[in-house]
Amino acid sequence: QVQLVESGGGLVQPGGSLRLSCSASGFTFSSFVMSWYRQAPGKERELVATITTAGGVKNYADSVKGRFTISRDNVKNTVYLQMNSLKPEDTAVYYCNAHRNVDNGDYWGQGTQVTVSS
Q1: pLDDT digit string (tens) for 35-49?
Q2: Residues paired with residue 36 on neighbouring β-strands, in sequence order
Q3: What's the longest Cα–Cα distance across the chain?
């Protein structure tokens, strides 16, 4: 059974930091590109960051460059999103995604809420 379980969300003040984790099971984690998406109320889901299978290439949305860092541990089957210098506009539900082009495998987690507010 495929599972992606996010954790680490919560309420943080502007300028603060959070580290999101996404633990994967039920599929070959190391063969999937992993991404973090987010969706704010009333807005479409947007891509935040992506990391390739071995972690060699990382891409970020312009809005989070220099503040967020994506990483992965293929032994622990976990992907992380370190979020620093958080802003109120970062408030959203953050989702973990696993994707593999060869067979169009595509899995989603249930999401974790991040709220940036004073």
Answers
A1: 999 999 999 999 999
A2: 49, 96
A3: 45
Q: Structure tokens of 67?
A: 């503040």
Q: What is the DSSP letter of 117?
A: -
Which DSSP state fits 29? G
* Joined tokens for residue 66: 């220099």
Measured CA to CA, the distance from residue 46 to residue 88 in angstroms comes to 16
pLDDT 10s digits, 17-32: 999 999 999 999 999 9
Please spell the DSSP secondary structure of 49-108, one letter per residue.
EEE-TTS--EEE-TTTTTTEEEEEETTTTEEEEEE-S--GGG-EEEEEEEEETTTTEEEE
Element (H, E) at 104: none
Give yes or no for residue 104 having a pLDDT over 90: no
What is the length of the chain?
Answer: 118
CA 102 to chain centre: 22
Instruction: State the chain's mean pLDDT as an integer.
Output: 97
Q: Give the span between the Cα atoms of 26 and 52, in whole angstroms.
A: 19
pLDDT of res. 1: 92
